[in-house]
Amino acid sequence: MGNICIVWLILITQMIMVTCNNENYVPAVIVFGDSSVDSGNNNMISTFLKSNFRPYGRDIDGGRPTGRFSNGRIPPDFISEAFGIKSLIPAYLDPAYTIDDFVTGVCFASAGTGYDNATSAILNVIPLWKEVEFYKEYQDKLKAHIGEEKSIEIISEALYIISLGTNDFLGNYYGFTTLRFRYTISQYQDYLIGIAENFIRQLYSLGARKLAITGLIPMGCLPLERAINIFGGFHRCYEKYNIVALEFNVKLENMISKLNKELPQLKALSANVYDLFNDIITRPSFYGIEEVEKACCSTGTIEMSYLCNKMNLMTCKDASKYMFWDAFHPTEKTNRIISNYLIPKLLAAFG
Question: Catalytic: 145?
């Protein structure tokens, strides 16, 4: 009987050690991208595109607006929590945080940016190349703080979340620019894919190995695009943009597959949520959502950033009934649904 107890004790100890190892396998979550993952970097730069005021953040951290473009948390927060790290990923430029806070996770994302440098210039936000420069600076600070050996381990084992592309199309190519005279939509997609590939290769050269790269959502179904879809029918999705998103996602996934074969030890995962987004739009009641055409904030059609503020008395009382918080960004509930869809895939690949 005593021997059996000892065997069980050894097995339980081994199980605990395996569990602990799995929890620590991803020691940090590092984020690059746009407003879908920006946790507050735009607060610290000179741009109109901010969300550091109510009602943004009304359902997070005691109702404190953090700079997240939502009523609450965003996907990197939920993903980090699922890996047993932390429930909020801090923004790199936020002076309230130090390198000690960034050891287990940091966000370099900037709302309004894209793969194309020209996209970031439209609203004077942080371009992707600058996000990379901040990342290099972070690496130097990390090495000085915890030593080179430990910092190399964190850099190589961290999960990198990359979410970009929507602004390149909606804010740049289809915006008030001359790009459409220089590129067909297919050519511009290829141009962005080339930038994305170079970006991933650069991160790889800097030590990153575990990457989750999102594609585009059905961007023609955003409340803003529905509202301005005059010719296609008021409040109907602009299907042309959805087709562009699908085409881009295929090219992105092909590029990711190619790099996984070319770069030793790279584990890049396509975190495509297009079909999930489309499913929520098609059958919202299955997800406990009542409204997918209009956003929670004010009229729910064109408001975003400063147009979505506490003076708008029409803002909904319960954001959990809505798919979108403002005319461009999901509610915390939708962000949680997205995260719950991705987390099993991420845990299986990296956990």
Answer: no
